[in-house]
Amino acid sequence: MSEQYETGKSYYDELSKKNIERHLDAIIDSSYDGLWICNGDGRVVRVNKASEEINGVRAEQVLNRKMVDLVAEGLVDRSVTMEVLQTGSAVTMIQQLRNGKQVLVTGNPVFDENGKISLVVVNDRDISELNRLRSELERSKALSREYHDELSQLYEKKRIYSDLIIRTDTMNRVFNTAVKVARVDSTVLIQGESGVGKGLFARLIHQTSGRKNGPFIRVDCGAIPESLIESELFGYEGGAFTGARNKGKPGRFEIAEGGTLFLDEISELPMNTQVKLLRFLEDGEVVPIGGTRSKKIDARIIAATNRELERMVEQKTFRRDLFFRLNVVPLQIPPLRKRTEAIPYLIHHFLEKFNKKCGTDRIIMPRAVDCLCEYSFPGNIRELANLIEQLVVLSPNRTIDEEDLPSHILRESIEDLPVPNREGWDLRKAVESVERDWISKALKAFGSQRKAAVHLGMNQSTLARKVKKHGIRIDLIIHHDA
């Protein structure tokens, strides 16, 4: 009976052992990670399916072979099993396989009852895809940052573009030049009459440049007394002169470090200050008043003037060498009287701005717009902006009409009316001539028959009939500026 029991127990133990081995095989082969098992001599005794796929081999190619031979054949560049056998401890490394994959492998020793390594169990995981995904993620982040920067620049350009009201080919060229020169650190000289928007263009260049996160320091050279201009620009050391601060004071150049220094009305700089500015443009260094050492300053210079510097050079009131240093990239902004087609857009821009500022809803009538288009605006855009604000504040009615305009504008408009010519006093011809001129100007100013008709106080069909009557070539008048 006892013998039968032992026989039965042995049978069931054998059966249980086979089940355990079968379950163990199933577990090893179902692992997502690769598993290599080597004996204490570094000979491969087991490879699961995941490891076959990762390493690009079949089990029969490596079983019962030593890892030292597989390394010699170039299957792997390093063997974690050999490292474990040498160190007697767990080892983790990255292997470069023959098939180009990178594998993260960890080898763990298994010790017998005598403390010797009987097995080395190696876990390997393909990290090639992980590295690829990480690289793609980094590229995506870099691309995202690039797109974000580009969109920010486009938004900034659009905002400034709308403030400048670019409606003529000439101004569009000036704008494009300003945006183009913003990409480099070249010195810019902006020339134009007072009030044309030189400061706006200087800020445009700064805000679309690589220095946009740095300071934008504006200095009105004509507003600072000659005795103070040098210390304001270049600073001074403590005790440099009577009344100087004990700790000294940094100049505008130093404050503009990493950004842009805008020197407005550069023509007003005294000769001795022009010399120091020239030195900065040549070597990027300034010497504070009372100082003995020069300071290296990283600041871009944008200069502006409403005077003709070339004539001042001839008159020896402005240094020739400084003029050439400043005039690297010249920007000439035309006066408003030479771009009258922009006046209606500017009027409505400032009307919207000051309505919002004053909490009003003023509207301007076509006759008033026409009258303003005939005015020369010696003060340029600044004069127009001030005029619209004045009209918004002082006009007694919601509508701003021709009679609400200042007398000097009305007087100039009347003086510009046509007078009898050598053809005589034919009133009908005079009226037709004025009508033809006004229709042509309205089409050019507003860009379409529909808009021109609204400002001329007639419906579109009437305007179309008059255009045909006078033989006005719309295709030669209406230009669609960018």
Describe the structure in your own words:
The chain has four domains: 19-126, PAS domain (Beta-Lactamase); 165-334, P-loop containing nucleotide triphosphate hydrolases (Rossmann fold, 3-Layer(aba) Sandwich), CATH 3.40.50.300; 337-417, Helicase, Ruva Protein, domain 3; 419-482, Orthogonal Bundle (Arc Repressor Mutant, subunit A). It is built from 21 helices and 14 strands. The chain has helices at 2-30, 49-55, 59-62, 67-72, 80-87, 128-164, 169-181, 198-207, 226-234, 252-255, 271-283, 309-314, 320-326, 343-358, 366-373, 380-394, 407-415, 427-446, 449-456, 460-470, 474-477; strands at 34-39, 44-47, 91-96, 102-111, 117-126, 188-191, 216-220, 260-264, 285-286, 295-296, 300-305, 329-332, 363-364, 399-400. Strand 3 and strand 4 form a beta hairpin. The longest helix has 37 residues, at 128-164.
Topology, please?
Elements: H1 2-30, E1 34-39, E2 44-47, H2 49-55, H3 59-62, H4 67-72, H5 80-87, E3 91-96, E4 102-111, E5 117-126, H6 128-164, H7 169-181, E6 188-191, H8 198-207, E7 216-220, H9 226-234, H10 252-255, E8 260-264, H11 271-283, E9 285-286, E10 295-296, E11 300-305, H12 309-314, H13 320-326, E12 329-332, H14 343-358, E13 363-364, H15 366-373, H16 380-394, E14 399-400, H17 407-415, H18 427-446, H19 449-456, H20 460-470, H21 474-477
Parallel strand pairs: 6-11, 6-12, 7-8, 8-11, 13-14
Antiparallel strand pairs: 1-2, 1-5, 3-4, 4-5, 9-10
Helix pairs in contact: 6-8, 7-8, 11-13, 14-16, 18-19, 18-20, 19-20
